[in-house]
Amino acid sequence: MIPYGKIFSVGQVVLVYIDDDPGFFARVERVQPDRKKGWWQMTFLMLAIPLKTMTWVLDDEQMRGQPFTMNGVAMQIKQVETPEAEHFRDTETRVAESEDESTDGNVVSMFDEE
User: Fold this and answer.
1) Structurally, how many domains does the chain consist of?
2) Is residue 64 included in any domain, yes or no?
3) What Cα–Cα distance (Å) separates residue 93 from each residue in 70, 83, 87, 97, 103?
4) Among 44, 48, 45, 47, which residue's Cα sits nearest to residue 57?
5) Which residues, at least 6 apart from 34, have a Cβ–Cβ distance to it below 8 Å?
């Protein structure tokens, strides 16, 4: 059993793998319990053209990223980590550090003075 994360939540962007290759990105629109205990109905919006919504019935492990098959095709849903989060933290740190430093600067005009 591979390690897996928390259950997918509404608004989260996921990447759906088909036959171990990235297939498409999707945004989770709704997660609700299925009538079968331990199963869920997950509705998501495919982030492709044309936009399309679909609902899959998944068990607890599949809802946390475990691989499964659908009509004999290997599938897996993985959470997408936003790479900009680290970039924004670094930028905010540099801005805060530069604001702490007091430097004398010159104002340069963008227009030629005649």
Assistant:
1) 1
2) yes
3) 46, 17, 10, 6, 18
4) 44
5) 40, 41, 57
| Phi, psi for residue 88 in degrees, rounded to 5 | -65, -40
Q: Give the separation between CA 45 and CA 40, rounded to whole angstroms.
A: 16
Whether 72 maps to a domain, the answer reads yes
Could you read off the pLDDT of 29-88 as tens digits, one per residue?
Answer: 999 999 999 999 999 999 999 999 999 999 999 999 999 999 999 999 999 987 766 666
Q: CA–CA distance from 8 to each of 11, 40, 62, 80 (Å)?
A: 9, 11, 10, 10
Q: In the block, which residue shows the tokens 């005009």?
A: 109
Full residue range of the structural domain in which residue 45 is found: 13-99
Tokens 């740190």 locate to 93
- Give the global pTM: 0.67
